[in-house]
Amino acid sequence: MAEIVRFAPSPTGNIHIGNARTALINWLLALKTGGEFILRYDDTDQERSRDEFAQGIAKDLEWLGIKPNRIEKQSARMAAYDAVAAKLKASGRLYPCYESADELDRKRKRQRARGLPPVYDRSALDMTAEQMTEYEAEGRKPHWRFKLDQKTVSWNDGVRGAQSIECDSVSDPVLIRGDGTYLYTLPSVIDDIEMGVTMVVRGDDHVTNTAVQIQLFELLSDKVPAFAHHNLLTSSSGEGFSKRLGSMSLRSMREDGYEALSVAIFAVLIGTSEPVHPLADMAALADLFALDKVSRSASKFDLADLGHLNARILHETDYDVIADRLAGLAVTGGEAFWLAVRGNIERLPEVKDWWDIVEVGLPDDAIALSEDDADFYAKALELLPREPWDNTTWKSWTTAIKTETGRKGKGLFMPLRVALTGRSHGPELAAFLPILGYQKTSDRLS
């Protein structure tokens, strides 16, 4: 079945890796089933929503390889929400409540003290017209609650299996605030109905909302979408992510040089029965992923683990795939240089450091040459072969040095690496030496 799915972020900050997990899972389902992916901005909170954040979300999704089939903004659909809200009010399913936040808090505390669940008692349903008039005269504005059918709501969750919620243990939810603005629930259901969404895939922190939304779907439409609630990602210390705090934002990952494919693979496969490993592209990820592989427990997202995956992907990346991005970094060493250094970088920007070692010189923090090796360097320079050089030059040169000096192993190779690169580790020098060339090698041994 071709699934119509949606990702509905609030443009109130930069989306983080947890948001990306939801977006990616939805996108992969659309890709795998030949369906449709809707990017729908939940921007009804005009005070906190910003256009620059919406643009940033679009850029982040594009970077990941997600291509929405359509883009919607809830702020442009207020008339549709108002029309449905008016019908629900007229039918008595939306009812006004005048309690303040403090009054509701005190009521909940009294219920807990009596050993009762802190469920709204529906006292507003008993208000008289005179009481409402008095509240209005005091300047109180009502918030509006949805009157739930107090029944059991069940559904077969695409990740969690059979689920049931007893609605008599759930407070009638507030759908419209006292200032007249909508909370997420009602606009979301209306949009899902009108946009033909067939499956709602989101984090399992929304499980408790599902019974309310199913009741709204049943009231407003003859179709209820399927639901699937995936596990959440946390930081390595077990904390949740926040857009407002910028935790693990995609923007920061992009700017720090992580590969989009690495981020996508890691965000999707962590917390599933599939091991996290390199894949060729998003299509391969779509083929591999399935909702029934998703765990029901939260998974920790560690940047160090992402770095390891990122390195593995770069180490297998061919030059023609990366050539344009290398040019963008002003790295002009061509295929030979890329093949020489790709095995020694974790993120692509690091390749510029190695190119600077070739073109500019030793880095400022280069390891100092030991005075004890002065005679060794002099002999190495004396034995340095003239060009042309190829991948056999390093072996023939070091063999000659070994014969002349008696050095071998680390005592032979490490001083040469330090002299040529300023580093104690790095690319195989058999491939790196021809790129460096005779003159620069000679200068660094002098």
TrEMBL record:
Q: Where is the Glutamyl/glutaminyl-tRNA synthetase class Ib catalytic domain?
A: 5-306
Indicate whether Ion transport appears among the record's keywords: no
| Record's GO cellular component terms | cytoplasm
Aminoacyl-tRNA synthetase class I anticodon-binding domain location, by residue? Answer: 341-445
Q: Where is the signal peptide?
A: none
Q: Where is this motif: 'KMSKS' region?
A: 240-244
Question: Source organism's superkingdom?
Answer: Bacteria
Q: Name one GO biological process term.
A: glutamyl-tRNA aminoacylation
Q: Which UniProt keywords apply?
A: Aminoacyl-tRNA synthetase, ATP-binding, Cytoplasm, Ligase, Nucleotide-binding, Protein biosynthesis
Question: A Gene Ontology molecular-function term?
Answer: tRNA binding
Motif ('HIGH' region) spans which residues? 9-19
EC no. given is 6.1.1.17
For this protein, the record's Gene3D superfamilies field holds:
1.10.10.350, HUPs (3.40.50.620)
- Subunit record text: Monomer.
* Role according to the record: Catalyzes the attachment of glutamate to tRNA(Glu) in a two-step reaction: glutamate is first activated by ATP to form Glu-AMP and then transferred to the acceptor end of tRNA(Glu).
Q: Which PANTHER family match?
A: GLUTAMATE--TRNA LIGASE, GLUTAMATE--TRNA LIGASE, MITOCHONDRIAL-RELATED
**Would you identify the family this protein belongs to, as annotated?**
Belongs to the class-I aminoacyl-tRNA synthetase family. Glutamate--tRNA ligase type 1 subfamily.
* UniProt xrefs under NCBIfam families: gltX_bact
Record's protein name: Glutamate--tRNA ligase
Organism encoding this protein: Cohaesibacter celericrescens
